[in-house]
Each structure stands twice: as C-alpha cells, then as structure tokens.
Amino acid sequence: MRMKRCALAYAERLGWAVFPVAGDCRRPLVKGGCHAASSDAQQVARLFGREANIALATGRASGVMVLDVDVK
Taking burial as the number of CB atoms within 10 A of a residue's CB, which of 36, 57, 65, 71 is the most buried? Predict the structure, then answer.
C-alpha cells in the first residue's frame, strides 16, 4: 500500500486533490475521474483501497496549473 501512503502525503502535506488511475495512467479507477479527486485524508484512504497510480486534479482543486505543449 505504498501508493496509498504517498497519496495521503500529497493530500495532507500539500493539499493536493488526488485520485487513483490504472497502470497506464490514463484510465481513472473511480467513477467521476478527476471530479472524484479529494485532499481529505479519509476520502483519499477510501479511494486508494487497492494498489493504483496517483493522479492529480489540476486547477482550482489543487492549485496547480499544467501546460502541455505538443511540438510537431
């Protein structure tokens, strides 16, 4: 349950809203995907009941902005 501990640390220490994703890091493992993300420790513990990768809900949810630049 290493990822669960990491997800809890991101939520508690940094205030990030996180949610579990599959090994391909593209498929959310919870209904609602990024809209189900939470920074509440109890909710994060429930979301990460099984081994999963950690995804971060960006924008207002976590206060983190991302710029994805695709150069052709």
Answer: 57
